[in-house]
Task: structure prediction
Amino acid sequence: MLDELRELYQEVILDHGRHPRNFGSLEGCNHMAHGHNPMCGDTLVVYLKVGENRVIEGATFKGQGCAISVASASMMTDILMGKTAEEAETLFHAFHEMCTRDDAPLPEGVDEDALERLQVLSGVREFPVRVKCATLAWHTMDAAMQGKEEISTE
Result:
């Protein structure tokens, strides 16, 4: 059963890597940041449109990288739509913990369904060098929300 689950996770990652969702720039974005992972050369730009009520009304990305990096960005942009800035930050921290710790506790108020969808990327914790690939888009989104124009996973 574990092998079947691992295979399904790989298929999801490859699908998002080959056919990323929300790929491109975003007209009317009011938050943007450039992210770079010098370890493997992944680079991307995250575009966000955040409404006056701090709800994410649009999320896209452009860039290039490995399948894990692109899949993570694709999944992130899907998941962030309709979330508040605070919910996005909570998800960012929960996802980062999930990618780096086996026993990561669920933070209070986290969208458990969204985190479950991201579970496909949690296998990177077995390969520490790949954690930066999976979390690059999330670090970049967080930088954009904080008004930083550039972030590096260095």
